[in-house]
Design brief:
This protein is of the alpha+beta class and about 150 residues long. It is built from 4 helices and 10 strands; from the N terminus they run H-H-E-E-E-E-E-E-E-E-E-E-H-H. InterPro entries: cNMP-bd_dom, cNMP-bd_dom_sf, Env_Response_Regulators, RmlC-like_jellyroll. Pfam families: cNMP_binding. This is Cyclic nucleotide-binding domain-containing protein.
Length: about 150
């Protein structure tokens, strides 16, 4: 894929919407595109997350391990989905396992590259901080809405 394709893909990711061409080019140029075969795990639940991934092609099923050790499907990531966005900011562990439901490709964005973006474009840091904060608030609200299910 061409650099321009990756820039176009990144511009559609909600976290990166509104970034200008130079900012997106910095991410796209420093990111790594990876092919993933059907059935292959992109990453596993509880593993350290030193990067985020943007799904470029294909579908990835997302699983968590239940209390009895069985894998429970939690959803599917499709093109344009950003997986493990908090890994761009700090060391976290993966909250699920992502397995390719079909042959696909991802764009790997290392934390160090994201930090470089923030250093070179300080105004972007404020925009992205607000977006990440809002994503966390939305997640907390969704969890609170499900509190009645856990007795």
């Amino acid at each position: 894929m061409a650099l321009s394709d990756d820039i176009q893909l990144l511009s559609q990711v909600p976290l990166f919407q509104g970034l200008d061409g130079d900012q997106l080019r910095l991410i796209a140029f420093g990111a790594e595109r990876r092919s993933i075969q059907k059935g292959q795990a992109l990453f596993r639940e509880h593993s350290p997350a030193e990067c985020a991934f943007v799904v470029a092609r294909g579908r990835f099923d997302l699983y968590t391990e239940s209390r009895d050790g069985m894998a429970e499907r939690q959803g599917t990531a499709t093109p344009g989905t950003l997986l493990s966005e908090l890994a761009l900011v700090t060391m976290v562990e993966r909250k699920f396992t992502a397995v390719a439901a079909e042959d696909g490709e991802v764009v790997r964005i290392p934390r160090s590259l994201f930090h470089r973006l923030l250093e070179e474009y300080p105004a972007v840091a404020r925009i992205l901080e607000d977006r990440i904060r809002q994503n966390l608030v939305d997640l907390a609200n969704a969890a609170a809405a499900m509190a009645g299910r856990f007795g």
